[in-house]
Amino acid sequence: MRFFALEGIDGCGKTTAATLLDVKLHQAGYPHTLRVHDPGGTLAGEALRKLLKDKAIPINGPVGALIVTASKCQLLSEVIEPVTLAYPDVIIIADRWWPSTFAYRYWLDEKIIEQLLPFCPLQPELYIWLDVPLGIGRGRLASVMKQSDRFESEGSTFYKRVHEKYQSMYQRNFLAPWRRVDATGFAVDVAKQVWSIVKEQLNERA
């Protein structure tokens, strides 16, 4: 199993980059891939995701972290572990993983969330951070957003702090090694950067 997770603020292009990476892997001769998103990816996970994003329901930081962790646990046991067992050579591409849990609760002491890590200890071999200026990320969201959820409705101050948390985690190689991608350009250019990083990693640990 190989495991890569794409991270970044809303509007950085993670989902598109994950889709294009999946396509590129198949074109390069890797037959077994699994693309997942966090939170979500299972019936329970999608229900938890809906709850988490519903801005009409008050949810504090620790409870939000617990909800996301529960979704990860379900995704791991219901999807990732069975697929890995059936296809040991699978390459997993995650649209968000543990860093998002920390970044979007930047005000919490990291030690609080770290207590949840043993419930879903799986870490990727590489976190790929799609770094984009706040204005560009927010602009991309506004162009496609019909109705904002709990996080999308937050203001620029919130996203500035989220971005700062990502930068801090990147600088420390928090939880696993990190690589940064300049995600300000067109999706195809971002995808090329992501593929270059993944290809290098696959070749190094072939």
Mean pLDDT score: 93
> Topology as H/E string?
EHEHHEHHEHHEH
Helix content: 40-55%
Order of strands, widest sheet:
2-3-1-4-5
Q: For the report, how would you describe the main beta sheet?
A: 5 strands, parallel
- Strand fraction equals 5-15%
The coarse overall form would be globular
Question: Which secondary-structure class do the elements indicate?
Answer: alpha/beta
Rg from alpha-carbon coordinates: 16 Å
Task: Characterize the structure shown.
The protein is of the alpha/beta class and 206 residues long. It has helices at 14-27, 43-53, 61-86, 98-103, 110-114, 134-144, 156-172, 187-204; strands at 2-7, 33-37, 91-95, 126-131, 178-182. A 5-stranded parallel beta sheet has the order 2-3-1-4-5, with helices on both faces. The longest helix has 26 residues, at 61-86. The protein is globular, with a radius of gyration of 16 Å. The chain starts with a strand and ends with a helix. The model has no long low-confidence stretch (mean pLDDT 93).
